[in-house]
Design brief:
Order of helices and strands: HHH
Structural class: mainly alpha
Strand content: under 5%
Radius of gyration: 16 Å
Distance between the termini: 15 Å
Number of strands: 0
Number of domains: 1
Largest sheet: none
């Protein structure tokens, strides 16, 4: 295995892990898991660095159109971005 193959494998592993963590976060929020529990705090701490920039971009777009954002669409957008990254790494 060359260095490039190992790097691509590592990146794909990170992308798949982040997809799983974001999906788990969405599912936990749907079942109303307490945010102050230790596992949920870990999930939020790991996923928030990906979600915050996307959330800011979405809010900026909504503010320009004077539309109030009723639900957080950032996990969906991040999942789509991660999907395209994983497709590029194949």
């Amino acid at each position: 295995m060359t260095f490039l193959q190992a790097a691509v494998f590592a990146l794909r592993s990170v992308v798949y892990t982040m997809e799983a963590i974001i999906l788990l976060r969405v599912l936990c929020e749907l079942i109303v898991v307490k945010r102050d529990s230790a596992p949920m705090r870990f999930i939020i701490q790991v996923s928030e660095p990906l979600l915050v920039p996307v959330r800011r971009l979405l809010e900026r777009g909504y503010r320009k159109r004077r539309i109030k954002m009723r639900m957080d669409l950032s996990p969906i957008v991040v999942m789509i971005i991660l999907y395209f990254i994983s497709r590029l790494l194949r």
